[in-house]
Amino acid sequence: MQRLSNVLLAAEYTQNPFASSHSLDTNPFDDPTPTRPAEDSARVEELRRRERDLERREQELDQRAEHIRTHGRNNWPPFYPLIYHSIPEEIPEASRPLITRLYQLWLVLLATLIINMVACIFLLVAGSSDGGKDLGGSIGYLFIISPLSFLLWYRPLYNGYMKANFYFFFGGFHLLFSVYMIIGIPSTGSAGLIQTIHMYATGHWAAGILGTIATVGWTVQGVGNAFYYHQIWKHHTAAGHTVDKAKAELASHGAKAYFTRG
After folding, report:
1. Is the pLDDT at 144 greater than 80, yes or no?
2. From the CB of residue 100, how many other CB atoms can be counted at a distance below 10 Å?
3. Residue 204 and residue 123: Cα distance in Å, rounded?
4. Alpha-carbon distances of 119 from 90, 107, 182, rounded to whole Å
5. CA distance 254 to 109
6. What gap in Å lies between CA 161 and CA 190, rounded to an integer?
7. Which of 111, 148, 204, 235 would bridge with 199, disulfide CB 3.0–4.6 Å?
8. CB-CB contact of 210 with 117 (8 Å)
9. Is 249:165 a contact under the CB 8 Å cutoff?
């Protein structure tokens, strides 16, 4: 009994008198809790993760600085930047979905031009009498229509929504070209509908399938652009923009107002 009393007395003297007896409170006078190895490991891993994140951001800043030093702010096309193109940074938030859709349709046009050229190669291999003309025309379309379409109808719309001005003259020509390519007249460089049907009829399935893909591509981007052109026309007409006003501004500012960001 005496031994038990001594043990209890010793426990009273060794206990921290300032320690909190309430489990929900944090007493600043409590004895420090020993750190667990698992907590140390998690803390070290968190510090390493932050360090890697900082290194990644530093590399991105260095790459951006090098890009600006070499090309200025230009970032498009990615393989050889010539212009600055950034929908999130330059287009007002309300118009970003529209411009994004138009840019996606332009990418569909670019892909369709490439597929059309490949389809014309298969037309030539299939023995089409006008295969050489079709292939030559398709190559010309790829290297001429792709940059012209970007500069003449997509970029002006991009600049127009960026500057809240309306310059839009070449959209109709692009729609007519799309219809022309959908038809697929032989010797015109198009693997469109007529050419596709002829390939299926003569048993050249590979050329027919590629022609089908090209025809669908021409149709998708043509119908999509027609829809959005109509939406743009209604929006700008409601806002008071007219063709005469656009012509007057072009006459006073020149073609620079149509093609450039300034």
Report:
1. yes
2. 13
3. 9
4. 37, 18, 13
5. 29
6. 33
7. 204
8. no
9. yes
Which among 75-89, 116-130, 226-240 has the top mean pLDDT? 116-130
Phi/psi of residue 42, nearest 5 degrees: -65, -40
Whether 211 and 184 have beta carbons less than 8 Å apart is answered as: yes
* CA angle, residues 89, 92, 98, in degrees to nearest 5: 100
Look-up: residue for tokens 């907590």? 39
CA torsion 193-194-200-204 (nearest 10°) is -100
> Which amino acid does the sequence have at 152?
L
The answer to whether the beta carbons of residues 205 and 195 sit under 8 Å apart is no
Q: Which of 91, 87, 84 is nearest to 104 (CA)?
A: 87
Q: How far apart are CA 239 and CA 243, in angstroms?
A: 12
| Sign of the dihedral through C-alpha 47, 52, 55, 60 | negative
Name residue 10's amino acid: A
Q: What percent of the chain has pLDDT over 70?
A: 69
CB atoms within 10 A of CB 170: 17
pLDDT, one tens digit per residue, over 27-44 is 555 555 555 666 777 788
Q: How many CB atoms lie within 10 A of CB 220?
A: 15
DSSP, residue by residue, 230-252:
HHHHHHHHHTT--HHHHHHHHHH
